[in-house]
Structures
1.
Amino acid sequence: MKLLHAADIHLDSPLVGLAMYDEAPVDELRSATRRAFDALVDLAIEERVGLLLLAGDIFDGDWPHWGTGRHFMLGMLRLQDAGIPVVAVAGNHDAESKLTKSLSAPGNFTMLSSRRPDTWISEELGIAVHGQSYATPAVVEDLAAGYPAPLPGMVNVGLLHTSADGRPGHERYAPCTVRTLIDRGYGYFALGHVHTREVLSQAPPIVFCGVLQGRGLREAGAKGATLIDIEEGVLHHEHRVLDVVRWAVVTVDAAGAEDLGEVCSRASVAIRDAARDADDRLLAAQLRIVGASAAHGALVLDPQRTRQEMILAAAEGAGDQVWLQGTAIDTVPESAVAGGGNDAVGELMSELEEILASDGAIEDFGRMLAPLAGTLTPAALEQFNPTDPAVIRDVLGEVRRTLPSALTQTVNR
């Protein structure tokens, strides 16, 4: 018998900021969560799974329109026609109190209760699924501690939307320890909320399957669901890739490159390789150019030209299979004079490094800029607060990156 475990579908999740990219394949990006969900349904049917488990955040919040719920329910109907039941819990994004719209669900779909730990039982499959949905978006108590004891003679599965013992970038919701989950005595724990696939335990398997479809560079890499095969009471699990758009940060080593053209050639090759790894999916990529290079000045002094050159390099490498979301330039000058020698430029850069290394110097900058902050509106301060140490470091970091080439270029004219 096979089970399929998915989570964090975030159906019709909005992709904020696409409007600023006039060349972005907007329709393909916005439909990605739906197409990945359709691929999940296809996989369940193709593998003839006995049960689909959904560990929260099916939706990204209240439906933007009725089509979101309709598309999900049509998928449930396809599974019902194939004889596949679906058991789900709601997470922080689709908590019971957050959704104002609803559609009638087919009989094969069960959402476990948010009021108390709930159990779904199939005598035919010999499976008991234990779980609890979120009633509100911010659940801070350990839900798993209240899950019931396993039912004898059945495969017991836990379904939980949780941060476990804490994960960077994820709110600490329904926190618990791996020990708590193991002590439940279940054969498998299907987890959601953390968007990177992670196996917390092999015996028993306790698995974050990760987000179904990446929605930005923070969710780079292959995404999908976990297929579970049960043979004579032993559970085996494997990741199945289901994303239709692959997000990636593609690093280009510019070390030793003589000019912008050589960097572009290297970028084209790096994009070609990344597109190959994406297996014909649309590749949404950011280029990160690194290394000590004579091309540093050309890269940083005209960022608009650099971006357009990199877009062309990406097209040369992978054609319309790639969309270049951005270019991050992290190169340094190859020349010791430009980078920090004993001349005036070098001395200036050394002083800048000392400032960046000193919290006190950064605080002094903030105090000097306080009068400027006083002239800005609250809305402007939310976007750019010149007294914020993080903002000051970002600005000085940009100066450190671009100033040497700007000064030496001026001197050499």
Note: The chain has three domains: 2-243, 246-334, 337-413.
2.
Amino acid sequence: MAIQKEKPELVRDLFSAIAERYALVNHLLSIGLDLVWRAAAVRHVVRWKPCTLLDVATGSGDLALAIRKESPATRVIGVDFCRPMLEVARRKGLGELVEADGLHLPFATASFDAVTAAFGLRNMASWEQGLSEMARVLKPGGHLLILDFSLPTLPLIRSLYRAYLHVVLPWVAGLATGRKDAYEYLGGSIELFPSGKTMTRLIEQSGLSNACAHPLSLGTVSLYTAEKTSPAR
């Protein structure tokens, strides 16, 4: 399934339809682990002490708000191409929001000390272009953080996870949101999305350095970090 490669407008429509229940359903389906994953991301960001941070594909703003809470001196801006998601983020208290595509960020080169993207890069029509844009808007010395789903390497865990993604998750989420198709898309997008060394290579090809993968929750989710040691190519 390659919706994110061919039909970005369908991705926007799907997320628009589930925007109001997106955060609640994610919390339910992850059994609360989404809080753990965001906390791990926030710890990295706090150590970097960025003055300015761009949260790409901010969605309902959960990661951006968590960062702002733990790093109040950081100016946090959220960007997303789905207006209903941005409206949810605004109601939650995220004030600086921009409606834009992550493949064409409306910011000058070298504008931010840090760039984050939680569960958003996977949905972009081009992962390479998305990463290149994130690298472009980073200042030299700045940091990138990507948090997204991945496939476990252990065969048994991978098999169980795939069964959950393609059978259990769409059924439960469909009951909760009325849009089973949105969560059928999720499983397919995770199957296609690169992880581990494949993802760190993609990140470094965007012009960043020292890319590292940090598997979480038995590898069902991975956190990637990198830094910009030279201007984006």
Note: The beta strands are 52-56, 75-80, 97-99, 112-118, 138-149, 209-216, 221-227.
3.
Amino acid sequence: MEKRLVIHIDEDKCDGCGQCIPGCQEGALAIVDGKARLVSDVYCDGLGACLGECPNGALTLVEREAAAFDEAAVEKRLQALQGPPPTAAPLACGCPSSEIKTLTPCQQANRPARNTDGSALGHWPVKLRLVPPEAPFLQGADLLLVSDCAPVAMGDFQTRLAGKAVLIGCPKFDDTQLYLDRLTAILRRAKPSSLTVMEMEVPCCSALGRIAAKALELSDADIPAKRLVVARNGELGEVALGNGEGKRG
């Protein structure tokens, strides 16, 4: 063993919120007994990508004797976390409500005997900041990246959701760098078939298209991609990724 930087977790400051878990793309962290834990030194690359995720400042980098970072071990761990095509997978963060799930047709059709078409949602979670790049429902999927207010304005959103892996978020109130890093990792690891960005016509939403364009560039993902803009009356138009030019139709 030699001295190197590895993550350190202050248990007194850690409240088990789990926000650091998706920030570590090597799967080095896990929630154990209500606290974030370093699963093994070999999974930690010492770069500290997870540091900014903790709202309590419980994560720091320390230099100590530790086993060398092992990329092969990381790959095996990520594969184990992903597992075979499951109906449930490990938590995306510390709370049970973020447990990764692929919804069955029965779950999708859980509807009352009234005039409703039910939900076309095929997985959980849907928040971009909570969905890990290795989530099984992302693999080879048609991605739909949506601002979280767009579905409210669209009467036919459920029909557009069918058969897609949906990721939602708000670029005004959330960390756009986190969005860029997460989407880039998803494009690299999951190798989706296509990407559709759907945002509201309001200015604060325009960052979503720019984030998607930059993520495509950074990931070298050569896939069909388009950007749709939703008016407040539900009218839908298409514009180029990365700018606001286009024609409503």
Note: Residues 176-190 form the longest helix (15 residues).
4.
Amino acid sequence: MQIDVTRDVFRLAQVFTISRGSRTEAKVLTVRITEGGVTGWGECVPYARYDETLESVTAQIEGLTGTVTRAALYDLLPAGAARNAVDCALWDLEAKRAGCRVWDLAGLPAPGPEITAYTLSLDTPEAMQAQAAKHAHRPLLKIKLGTPDDMPRLEAVRRGAPQAKIIVDANEGWSAAVYADLAPHLVRLGVALVEQPLPAGADEALIGMARPVPVCADESCHDRASLPKLKGKYDVVNIKLDKTGGLTEALALRDAARAEGYGIMVGCMVGSSLAMAPATLVAQGAMVTDLDGPLLLAEDRENALIFDAAGVHPPRPELWG
């Protein structure tokens, strides 16, 4: 078994801003695993919020030796970007060698399209209203907030897209007091979900707090080990493969979270269609699907995912799985 890792850069269609900063390109790592003349591949997006860099994740992947299995990965790599790319590449490799689709290997029904959110970058209220108007035809818009001046932005987006379903991502940017003040306005403006309003290390304040809009754990939820600490704070969990460490754990987290009564959101980092492809399996039947990474790019992989009025479609075999 040969494991290779390379860096790829995809230009964004426009500057993408969240409360933590701005970017103009997506920097990803592509892992290719070859065995018996067959190659499977996967993609990950190292994230500084979780103390990951391109260099550190590359080193983790290059440290793997010999024949690696998905089961063994749990002992070899922690949950995170490195394990994600390797796990997804192994799924792809297994499917190609078996001559079947990944969902057949996983014992899952054939997936279909899922409506995905489209993310509006953090900007001035005027610019965000213009963005919202441009994308008002989309059924689900996601707004990046997380600053002391969010109400004018939210009002502006609602004016720009009066019919769209809206979800809000604060990216840990609010305090408990700010969230409590904003909550009634979220209801008034028809917000369907709010992601990670408080910092992951300070979300105890959510216990006992009124949640008139469902609250989703993102930075507070990585894998199944996260679930015990979410009780009483969150209604929904955001499953991202770069957090869970791959498709294997993402599917397990989905089942465990549902068994405990949580709603499911499936999200992504800003990456190419290769990164989104495995997540389309996890997104089947989810409360919210947020796999719009490729829609934010100026360029994508060959055989990219199809996005249309029905949503994001599962990958063709030429791409993955």
Note: DSSP finds ten helices and 13 strands in the chain.
